[in-house]
Amino acid sequence: MNEFPGAIPGAPDCARRMILKTAVAGGLAGLGLAASAMISPVYANADAKEWPQSAFKEKNQAAVLKDLYGKSEAVASDKINLDAPEIAENGAVVPIAIASTLPKVTGIAILVLENPNILAAAYKIPDGTEAAVSSRLKMAKTGKVVAIVESGGKLYSATQEVKVTVGGCGG
Questions:
Q1: Which of 171, 125, 120 is nearest to 144 (CA)?
Q2: Could you tell me the pTM of the whole model?
C-alpha cells in the first residue's frame, strides 16, 4: 500500500507529491543561494579597498564631499534634475530620482542633511553611461535632500526640501 497514514483510501497520494515538490523546490532554491553566495563577494569587493567608507560616517556636507571627491564645495546647477516628493508620508521609504545633462559625469551622491549620517548613497558612473539614478531613502525628519554630481572634475549640486510626516529612522 502506497498511502500515508490518514490518506483517503483510493484518492491520489497528494501529500507525497506535495512533499516531493517542496523538497525539489527547496533544493533548487538552496542551490541558487549557494551559487549567489559564491559569486557575490567577488563583485562586492571589486572596489572596496578604494572606496572611502569614512564618507558614510560624516556629519556635514563638506566632510562628505572631501572624503568622496577630494573637494569640499559644490556649485548649484540647473542641469541636475532632482525628483523627490514635496511631502513624504513615510520617511522610511522616500522615492528619489536624479538625472543630469552635464557632460562626463563620473559620480552621483545623495545627501540627506537632517539624517544622523548624511550620506545616503554614492554611485560611480561608468564612462558612456547615462547619468541617472533612482533610489528609496530613509529620512529621519523633514529636511533638505542634496544631489551631488561630479562632472569633468568639478562638483555640482541640486537641493530640494522634503517634508516628512512620519520619520523613517526610528522617529
A1: 120
A2: 0.69
Terminal C-alpha separation, the chain: 62
Residue 154: how many other CB atoms lie within 10 Å = 15
DSSP-derived secondary structure for 95-131: EEEEEE--SSEEEEEEEETTSSS-EEEEEE--TTS--
**Residue 120: what residue type?**
A
Cα separations (Å) of 138 from 8, 30, 53, 95, 145?
53, 31, 19, 9, 11
**pLDDT, position 40:** 43
Q: Are 84 and 162 in contact, with CB atoms under 8 Å apart?
A: yes
Q: Grid cell 559569486 — which residue?
A: 39
Residue from 94, 85, 98 nearest 149 by CA: 98
